[in-house]
């Protein structure tokens, strides 16, 4: 099991949503230092003040993870301020929520960088210290969308497919090196945080953010390779693997309504 007590963790997008909830749970489990990266300075200040008033040690940094130079510089500042990071949770992400033809080039670049390549750049900055110490844990928040194609999510889906493939490959590399750096990939269904406002799902339940945060932190403690939610998401790779694509479209897309979930999408206003 991965130990949380007296460790140091960094969460991107940690000033709100499940990022904030995961940070709170880690602190309640005895985390020594919580490092929060977020692009929203006001949310950072509010969250930091809330945690500090409860007696927790929190360091905050305003970071736009689209900017690789800023990621590298801020990572070095974190090392100077906090020392080695034991646990990295790559949580920051965005969704555009419209047909691919309606995307701007900027929409495509922002989604792919924030949701996928930024995770790699951030992990690279902290991984070497974990390897040298033969201890650490990297958690990458992907999505069930990384396993299922879906209208009005094409670029988001692409970014999350990339995360799943990279994250699990990183796990295998650590195992091949016989290195005690654990990698957990989380693939939740829609989480009710505001990011997916307007989404409707009649059969598969939308995930409560507190439930999502708790499952991910428990997954870290138990060194789970994948954390999927709700439970039906665990069946997706099997179902997709055995069904002809048109049957999958019919059963999952039409009967279960997955392909209609984004029809009324509004997103965070």
Examine the coordinates and then state which fold CATH places here, giving the name of the CATH topology.
Rossmann fold
Second CATH tier, the architecture: 3-Layer(aba) Sandwich
Indicate the mean pLDDT. Answer: 96
Which range best describes the helical content: under 10%, 10-25%, 25-40%, 40-55%, 55-70% or over 70%? 40-55%
Key structural traits:
single chain; 269 residues; alpha/beta; Rossmann fold; seven-stranded parallel β-sheet; 8 helices; 7 strands; globular
In short:
With 269 residues, the chain is an alpha/beta fold. Helix content is 46%, strand content 14%. The relative contact order is 0.13.
Structural description of this entry:
With 269 residues, the chain is of the alpha/beta class. It has a single domain, classed as Rossmann fold (3-Layer(aba) Sandwich), CATH 3.40.50.720. Helix content is 46%, strand content 14%. The chain has a 7-stranded parallel beta sheet, with helices on both faces. Helix 5 (154-176) links the parallel strand 5 and strand 6 (181-188). Helix 1 packs across helix 6 (209-221) and helix 4 runs parallel beside helix 5 (154-176). The model has no long low-confidence stretch (mean pLDDT 96).
């Amino acid at each position: 099991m991965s130990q949380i007590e007296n460790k140091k963790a960094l969460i991107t997008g940690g000033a709100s949503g499940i990022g904030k909830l995961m940070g709170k749970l880690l602190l309640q489990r005895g985390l020594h230092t919580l490092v929060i990266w977020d692009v929203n300075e006001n949310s950072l200040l509010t969250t930091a003040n809330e945690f500090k008033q409860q007696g927790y040690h929190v360091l905050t940094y305003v970071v736009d993870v689209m900017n690789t130079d800023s990621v590298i510089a801020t990572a070095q500042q974190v090392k100077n301020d906090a020392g080695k990071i034991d646990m990295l949770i790559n949580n920051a992400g965005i969704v555009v929520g419209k047909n691919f033809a309606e995307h701007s080039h900027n929409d495509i670049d922002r989604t792919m960088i924030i949701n996928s390549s930024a995770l790699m750049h951030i992990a690279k900055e902290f991984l070497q210290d974990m390897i040298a110490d033969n201890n650490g844990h990297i958690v990458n928040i992907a999505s069930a969308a990384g396993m299922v194609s879906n209208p009005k999510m094409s670029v988001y889906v692409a970014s999350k497919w990339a995360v799943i493939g990279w994250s699990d490959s990183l796990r295998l590399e650590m195992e091949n090196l016989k290195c005690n750096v654990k990698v957990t990939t989380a693939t939740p269904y829609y989480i009710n945080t505001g990011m997916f406002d307007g989404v409707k799902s009649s059969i598969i339940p939308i995930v409560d953010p507190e439930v999502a945060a708790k499952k991910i932190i428990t997954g870290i403690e138990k060194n789970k390779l994948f954390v999927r939610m709700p439970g039906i998401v665990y069946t997706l790779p099997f179902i997709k693997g055995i069904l002809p694509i048109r049957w999958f479209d019919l059963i999952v897309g039409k009967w279960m309504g997955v392909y209609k979930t984004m029809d009324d999408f509004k997103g965070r206003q």
